[in-house]
Design brief:
Length: 164
Amino acid sequence: MLGTLLPKRGLISLLNNQNLVSKKYFMVVIRQHHFSLEQLQSPPETETLVASIFVERSQAGKSIWELLLQIRSRCTDRLDLVLRLDEVVSYTLGDNWRKIMDERFSDKIAKQSLQFYRAADVPSVSSDLPVGVSNVRFLSDLSGVLPINAAIYRAKNGLFRWAL
């Protein structure tokens, strides 16, 4: 999930100085993401995490394709995880995947802004939908939600160990 960054310039000063004031203007970082209700509903006995990052295009950065290959190389002994990763990426990118795979983004900004949240903690609409309502999508603000402690999840088996 990609966070909303307003204004686009000045993020580097925010990340390096850990403050919201730049020399020329105020910086506002908002972690807002679009979700479908289905994305936040975990199957029984599973836990879903949401990754939230800020991205900025950069010709010097990594392409999405390079990032995908890097992640896949971490879990070569777990074909099930590689297949799940490919499934999630293709679903997320949709029909534009060919065009998007070559897009390059600043890895420094992405790494410094990366936070994970439990899907259960993300502000959401009620899952008790009226008859005839489906395919619910909404915008959620994560600024009041505490991110998880990634070290705890890295200690677990499965995808969390490989992805965090």
